[in-house]
Amino acid sequence: MDVPGILHADLDAFYAAVAVLEDPSLAGKPVAVGSGVVLSCTYEAREFGVRGGMRVVDARARCPQLILVDGTFGAYSNYSKTVFGIFERYTPLVEPLSIDEAFLDVTGSIHLFGSPREICDRIRNDVRTETGLAVSVGATTRKFLSKIASQVAKPDGVIVVEPGGEDAFLHPLPVSYLWGVGPVTKKKLNTFGIQTIGDIANTPDDSLVAMLGSGAAGHMGALARNQDPRAISRTRKAKSIGAQSAVRSQRRDLDDIVPILHRLTDRVAARLRKKDMAARTVTIRIRFGDLSAVTRSATMQTPTASTQAIVDLATKLVKKVLDEFPKHEISLVGISTSGLGVDEPLQLALGVDDIALGGSPKELEYEALDSSVDELRRKFGRDAISHGSDLLSERSSFGDGLSEVMTPDERLVEAGDGGPQYIDFDDDET
Amino acid sequence: MRIRAERDDLADVLVRASRAVGTRSPLPILQGVLCDVVGGKLTVTGTDNEVTVRTYLDVEVTEEGKTVIPAKLAAEAVRKLPPGAVTLASVDGEVEIIGSGPRFKLREMMVDDYPKISDADTTDAVSVDGTGLIKALAQVGVAASGDDARPTLTGVLFEAVDDGLRLVATDSYRLAVKDVPGVSAEGSKLVPYRALRELGRTVGAGTMQVALGEREAAFVTDHGRLTVRVIDSTFPNYRQLLPEGHANRLTLDKGALLEAVGRAALVAEDHIPVRLAMHSGGVELSVIRQEVGEATELLEGEYIGEDMTIAFNTRYLTDGVNAVNDEAVVIETSDPLKPGLLHGADENDFRYLLMPVRL
Predict the structure, then answer these.
(1) What is the pLDDT along chain A (430 residues), one digit of tens a residue?
(2) Residue of B154, B271, B312, B355 to mutate for A, most A C-beta atoms under 10 A
(3) Do B136 and B106 belong to one domain?
(4) d(Cα B11, Cα B97) in Å, to the nearest integer?
(5) Among candidate residues A427, A8, A5, the one with its CA nearest the CA of residue A236
């Protein structure tokens, strides 16, 4: 590859920017989206030190005139679709990462639209004139590098790194730009005198292993040396389907979380069923108030796409986590299904108990219920029918799709048929 | 403690007791076996706190006493000695295992740390033919679950019925029922199959005393005793799962069926079933796996009923056919989505109910 044809396009402060577009009187003011926790904020608010993930109380302390608005998922989805439509004018190779960012491979489009830099400019111009949103773009020869470039380019900028110039761009940057370097790893690296990505590149592998452990060290060393062979994959076969929801950070009982699990699973399972898929493994992710997180998973002998069967298993897993961490506040709940099979034969089970495991009479009852619900929704829309607890749980969690408080690995998504619709778990590994 | 015994006899009691020792016990002391010498007798105890095996051996005693030694290591060490007499002695925190020439010294484990395990009460024990019981348990045991998340299903139900003992196991995909007539059992108890499968290799066959207590089940022979904590939960109501009758009846040669399913299983992965297209004159077995290929085979047999295709998991079907104790296997069916029933053509004491796979 001798052109910087791999683009990473990332909308600037997406949720806050949409809020301003929807209510122009907010323009130029410090605005934050969220309640309890700041999910996204305008650059005006950022000047006061307000950041995504911050508690609203703390944000207000820094910026008393902060204007707080609630998120509206419908509007986000519409803007996102328009933006992805623009991306697709310039290449069919668009790999959505979340509702507001994507990788684009424009290597094959250069003879149509000009150099990568010209394509970046055209995309940014189209997005601005057609939606009013600012999008920052990084263009390099590699995915991870483009993603870093777009972050450096923010706000409202573009950075093109020509082949051969990668090290000169990458090495002076602080280590925190590297994917996988959070506050803890950064601190650890800093204690060894490693401040920049160049420092990592110049550190021998075995020293890195001693500092970070073999998994993280190999991954980081490779990235720092500009090695990332991943291609843009538009038609990734889903390895997992999931959804997650940020919730106001506080201690919660199982009773508070089950409705959230139910609502998330309702959508996940419906998507499984839409694709004639069933899942063997259910993984739950709980993130605590201090942003540390745990995942727990369980694998069933027979796959299922039944909402209730998945909820039942997820509930057991969450209960274990709550028992294990009895005092922690919870700030995010996620569920993911994997071990996916398409239209597989189903081993039926005898009704030995009331557990809704795949193929059991109980699960088949739920399957019938699910298909009735799916049918009703197809005819009358998503909101035509809901589980009672779903309606209640919406009050205690943020709209799904609000991704800006999520860490990078939480933000990677699986592309839906009509563009990204939900914030999903990482299924980026192909 | 100091004793002398023949190598093979000593190895035997150590190996059998070691079978109860878990490989990943949370308590280090449970990696050991307790050797207790009283009178002229050595008693070796191994346990994982759920299953306990005790074995006995008459030995030449120089000094009575107790010691705890690493189970697997001690058993292997004795086995690897040259044939002949072996001396086992505990001296100053070490245990010496001395053959004619070679000599091992193993660090002794703390005798005081070893759990106090008293022998379960066997006054109400019933006497059974051990060989028959072990065979019967193997027949139903294939249907027991290995999934610790569903502990009830990991057990074999011992249930008293009119003319004897009934053994039942299910993992929810299949259910096996075996009647052992002439055993005067009482009540019903759920015993972990994990322990029962070790009966043959720990306490051996011959006449066996079986005592099913409130908390423990004990199986005692001249060779030793195995005790296991019973599962304290209610077994599914298996009677309502057994169908009243079946419309279709297919009879096949057991060996031929096993071979044919074995060939089909080559192509199938675990979740790809074998289809049985039944018609007068026999059955066509087929496996279709899109990315690999397919296998089909015609098996002659006797079929009474309407033409019907039903699919089964190859492993579950193989387990069931293997368990049948007859040269001719009968598969009774009524509907592609309802369970099939396997048993021998002349076998009235065993039934294997198998749920089909929905295609």
Answers:
(1) 578 999 999 999 998 999 899 888 988 999 998 777 788 889 999 999 888 778 888 899 999 999 988 766 677 888 988 999 999 889 888 888 778 889 999 988 888 888 999 999 999 999 999 999 999 999 998 888 899 999 999 889 999 999 888 889 989 999 888 877 777 788 888 888 889 999 988 888 888 888 877 667 777 777 787 776 565 554 445 577 888 887 766 777 888 888 888 888 988 898 888 888 889 889 998 888 777 788 888 888 888 999 999 999 999 999 999 898 888 888 888 898 888 888 788 889 998 887 777 788 888 888 888 888 888 888 887 777 877 766 665 554 444 443 333 433 333 333 333 322 333 333 322 2
(2) B271
(3) no
(4) 11
(5) A427
The CATH architecture to which A171-224 belongs is Orthogonal Bundle (1.10)
User: Does B235 share its domain with B271?
Assistant: no
Checking DSSP bridges between strand A293-304 and strand B155-161, what pairing results, if any? unpaired
Q: Does A365 contact chain B (CB < 8 Å)?
A: no
Is A101 known to be catalytic? Answer: yes
Put simply, the chain B residues between 142 and 181 with a CB less than 8 A from any chain A CB are 147, 149-150, 152-153, 170, 172-175
Domain formed by A240-415, architecture: 2-Layer Sandwich (3.30)
CATH of region A1-144+155-160:
3.30.70.270
Question: Residue A347 is nearest to which of B147, B173, B236, comparing CB atoms?
Answer: B173
Residues B200 and B235 in one domain: yes
Q: Which domain holds residue B232?
A: 126-240
Q: Are B318 and B297 contacting, i.e. CB atoms less than 8 angstroms apart?
A: no
Rounded Cα–Cα distance for residues B8 and B13 (Å): 9
What is the amino acid identity at position B324? V
Note whether B155 and B209 are same-domain residues.
yes
Cα–Cα distance, A256 to A260 (Å, whole number): 7
List alpha helices for A114-252, DSSP H. Answer: 116-131, 143-153, 166-170, 183-191, 197-201, 205-212, 214-224
Answer yes or no: is B359 within a domain: no
Q: Where are the domains of chain A?
A: 1-144+155-160, 171-224, 240-415
CA angle A127, A133, A136 (to 5 degrees): 75
| Residues B236 and B224 placed together within one structural domain of the fold | yes
CA of B356, closest CA in chain A: separation in Å? 6
What is the DSSP secondary-structure string of B104-133?
EEEEPB-GGGS---PPPP-TT-EEEEHHHH
Same domain? B235 vs B249: no
| B310 lies in some domain | yes
**From CA B316, how far away is CA B313, in angstroms rounded?**
5
Q: Check if A214 contacts B (Cβ < 8 Å).
A: no
CB proximity A286 to B under 8 Å: no
What is the least distance, in Å, from the CA of B236 to any CA of chain A?
A: 5
* DSSP E strand stretches across A175-319: 240-250, 277-288, 293-304
- For B:284-303, CB contacts with A below 8 A are none
**B37 vs B35: CA distance, rounded Å:** 7
Distances (CA, A) of A70 to A54, B2, B38: 15, 81, 80
pTM over 0.80: no
Please name the member of B150, B152, B313 whose beta carbon is closest to the beta carbon of A347. B313
State whether B209 and B302 are in the same domain. Answer: no
